[in-house]
Amino acid sequence: MTRGGRLKTEDEAERRCIATGDSQPKSGLIRFVVGPGDQIVPDIAGKLPGRGIWISADRVALEKVVSKKLFARAAKCQVSFSDSLVADVETLLLKRVISLISLARKSGTAITGFEKVKEACTTGSVALLLQASDGSPGQIGKIRPPKGDNTHVTCLSGQELGVAFGRENVIHAALAAGGLEERVVEEAARLAGVRQFHVQTRANASGAVPELEGVKDV
After folding, report:
1. 2 Cβ contact list (under 8 Å, min separation 6)
2. Which residues contact 87 (CB under 8 A, 6 or more apart)?
3. Residues 18 and 53 placed together within one structural domain of the fold
4. Which spans in the chain are helix H?
5. What is the pLDDT of residues 87-107, one digit of tens each?
6. Number of domains forming the structure of the chain
């Protein structure tokens, strides 16, 4: 398992984290590039041009890079970055996870509701269980995740899950196999690493969840 909670996949391309010095699959890292004005830009989708600077999807690693100014060493030039860079990365990852779940809902491979989700997990008709980090422990524990590895995501709040389903609040949801569940697992693992797992939303002081407008390249 990688530092950010991502299981290593055989033959997957690896990159070296500038904070830890460890090499791991790209899916467990976050890519940054030097943008206009020598500004460090998070490349969550991994599609921006330029030489990539890679950091483990882990809050401690990100904060180390920021505090020790390791970006300049990796870029081999003086660079600047936002004071809120770590929080910005978390928000971008959150938007990405929400967007993927929303796409699964629109494709008809996602369900919500305690009874529906519990039955689907029991019968094995779903591949991934999503439960809100701020849900009731008693209710959360009554649903067993599907069999297998990486079948349970708990790094989103009920409000955040609600955004993905067009509702105010969602505590229990599930995704069927053969759709977007693998990508949701990968992105949720990165988000969980940056959030240090099982935390409630902290998008801003008011607790508001970022809007999905402008989220692309999922």
Report:
1. 8, 24, 25, 28, 56
2. none
3. yes
4. 59-67, 70-75, 85-106, 114-123, 137-140, 158-164, 181-195
5. 999 999 999 999 999 999 999
6. 2
Main-chain dihedrals φ then ψ at residue 71, nearest 5 degrees? -60, -45
Single-letter residue type at 25: P
- Residue 212 belongs to a domain: no
Backbone φ and ψ for 40, nearest 5 degrees, come out as: -75, 130
pLDDT digits 0-9 by tens, 9-48: 555 789 999 999 999 999 999 999 999 999 999 999 999 9
Q: Which amino acid is at 71?
A: F
- Does some domain include residue 117? yes
Contacts of 5 (CB under 8 A, 6+ apart): 28, 57, 189, 192, 193, 197
Read off the tokens for 142: 């009554």
The C-alpha atoms of residue 156 and residue 124 are separated, in whole angstroms, by 23
DSSP codes of every residue in 100-113 = HHHHHHHTT-EEES
Identify the H or E element spanning 131: strand 128-131
